[in-house]
Amino acid sequence: MNMDFNLFMNDVVRQARQEIVSVGYKELKTVEEVDEALNQQGTTLVMVNSVCGCAGGIARPAAAHSLHYDKRPNHLVTVFAGQDKEATEKARSYFTGFPPSSPSFALLKDGKLCKMIERHEIEGHEPMEVVQKLQNAFEEFCDEV
User: Fold this and answer.
1) Buried b (16+ CB within 10 A) or exposed e, 105-126
2) Crossing angle for the helix pair 85-92 and 31-38, nearest 10 degrees?
3) Quick one: average pLDDT of 14-28?
4) 5 CB-contact burial (10 Å; exposed 0-12 / middle 13-18 / buried 19+)
5) Is 23 helix (H, G, I), strand (E, B) or coil?
6) Using CA atoms, how far apart are residues 93 and 67, in angstroms rounded to an integer?
7) Is 114 known to be catalytic?
8) Average pLDDT, the chain
9) Distance CA 62, CA 68 (A)
């Protein structure tokens, strides 16, 4: 039974990774990749992915749909909480003043945190409410595409 569960979880993780990558987010799996990505010039949206229901039903759909907007981040990246632990921990080190939260979104500009959308702002909300929160942040901090 344990082997079946592991196979099931591997499939769930693979699907969760593919879902976010397929809409244009780059996976960061190492500390070095995180440092390089989060210190880029311009705006960077980080999605902290997870296998929970609110990630699949709300956060990942919002991450995709929020991009249909006049202003968008220059860079889209993702780390996977519970899977790529060192990369996720390193990404969270940029989110000063905020406790670990997954799923969540962080918008950085030139390596500095501008906006954080935490799990409590995602869980129990409609995907379009989260899209609106993301697009409000894009409007404030991002340039037109």
Assistant:
1) bbbbbeeebebbbbbeebbebe
2) 30
3) 95
4) exposed
5) coil
6) 25
7) no
8) 94
9) 10
Q: Sheet holding 112-117: strands in order across?
A: 26-27, 75-80, 43-49, 104-109, 112-117
54 in active site: yes
State how far the Cα of 136 lies from the Cα of 11, in Å rounded to an integer: 34
CA dist 111 and 113 (Å) reads 7
CA distances from 3 to 7, 8, 11, 120 (A): 6, 9, 12, 33
- Residue 21 is which amino acid? V
Catalytic annotation, pick one of 54, 81, 116, 130: 54
Number of C-beta neighbours around residue 51 at 10 A: 18
| 71 DSSP 8-state letter | B
**Cα–Cα dist 60/22, whole Å:** 11
Radius of gyration of the chain (CA): 15
> Considering 46, 48, 52, 122, which one is annotated as catalytic?
52
pLDDT tens by residue, 46-71: 999 998 888 889 999 999 999 999 99
Sign of CA dihedral 50, 89, 92, 106: negative
